[in-house]
Amino acid sequence: MSEFALTLLEWFRENGRDLPWRHTDDPYAIWLSEIILQQTQVKQGQDYWLRFIRRWPTVEQLAEATEDEVLREWQGLGYYSRARNLHFAARQIVQMGGFPQTLDGIKRLKGVGDYTAAAIGSIAFGLPVAVVDGNVYRVLSRHFGIATPIDTTEGKKLFAALAQDLLPVYLEKSQQSTNLSDSEGLRVSLYNQAIMDFGAIQCTPQSPRCLLCPLQESCVALREGRVGLLPVKQKTLQVKERHLIYIYIRYKGQTAIRRRGDGDIWQGLYEPILIDNGQCTMDNWAEQNHYQLSVDNCQLLAKQVKHVLTHRVLMADFYLWEPEKRPVLPEGYFWIDEAGFDGYAKPRLVERLIETLHR
To answer: Which of 3, 78, 172, 191 is a good FRET partner for 358, with 20 to 30 A between their CA atoms?
Structure first.
């Protein structure tokens, strides 16, 4: 075992995070944690993991749930395609007769890429495959002084190969992963968790704890004063701004909502009347739908509410409209009792509208 791997394992023994899914070898529980932690901080993700495990203790029970039920339980986590993929994959697993125990089998699950498959395979089954996520990129690029951009094909291949070489498993090429001893499988699992925790706790993106780092003597970036420069990314994310108008209709204790369709953000979630301000104004929309509606007979609840997504910034205006006569709803919308809206999965931005309305 390399000195690098040994040091990480020793560090992990003293500093590793005590997380509930680390107290089980149930692949369902481990898979669930990995899906939830995609694009989610551990502190927030832990609460959702507990919520899902309590409601659906087995993958069979999750597979029997409806998509609406899963989306409602996921509400607030964002990136809702993860919830839809989770539900779809649960049904895949049931159809397979159980959780796949090979890397290729795990990769066939909806929503599971290389990193997630490696994490599940190594932690649940001891498969000898290294994980490579943002934390691993950061630790390896800094420790070995690698300036190759991590978001290029060359960089991804380089870091994947390095991570695999550092994995503390000694196998002949002819040996198969099914021949792993328990100790080797455990070593793989602990090492992968160790390097991810090390990046999350010790070698952080900002203000890393270099003075207290057990790898400081061998860290190239620290020695050369390049800690803040690594890892390198070549591409700059272009963030676009999008303007929305939400109109909450209130008529005799009811309101109007619709379920969002495919091809845009928040697929499958529910929302009140929406006007995409990039396509038309409120007056134009009202005229198209034959509504006696304007900014003059609506109550402005909030203006320019900012909601940040990965690739765009949403700026939304919230209105309350209380018409004297029951309006005919645009296609796709339907009436519900206001008190029942809580039972529908909705985007965080719509939750903020409801909170504003209640205030």
So the answer is: 78
Report pLDDT for 176: 37
Please identify every residue annotated as catalytic: 34
d(CA 22, CA 245): 44
Kindly list the distances between the CA atom of residue 297 and the CA atoms of 247, 279, 291, 293, 321, in Å, as whole numbers in the listed order.
Answer: 12, 22, 11, 6, 7
Q: Mark out the alpha helices in 202-281 (DSSP H runs).
A: 220-224
Q: Which residues contact 225 (CB under 8 A, 6 or more apart)?
A: none
Are 282 and 295 contacting, i.e. CB atoms less than 8 angstroms apart?
A: yes
What b/e readout covers 73-112, taking b as 16+ CB neighbours within 10 angstroms?
bbbebbebebbbbbbebbbbbbeeeebbeebeebbebebb
pLDDT of residue 173: 32
CA distance 177 to 179: 5
In this prediction, residue 295 carries a pLDDT of 65
Helix axes 153-166, 134-143, angle to 10 degrees: 80
CA–CA dist 211, 216 (Å, integer): 7
Structural contact between residues 307 and 229, judged by C-beta atoms closer than 8 angstroms: no
Distance (Å) of CA 278 to CA 10, 203, 223, 316? 55, 42, 51, 11
Return the sign of the alpha-carbon dihedral for residues 69, 265, 156, 203. negative
Give the tokens for residue 180: 């792993």
The pLDDT score that the predictor gives to residue 280 is: 74
Task: Return d(Cα 40, Cα 46) in angstroms, integer.
Answer: 10
Q: Do residues 282 and 352 make contact, with C-beta atoms less than 8 angstroms apart? A: no
**CA Rg value for the chain:** 25
For the chain, which residues score pLDDT lower than 50?
170-181
Given this model, what pLDDT does residue 16 score? 96
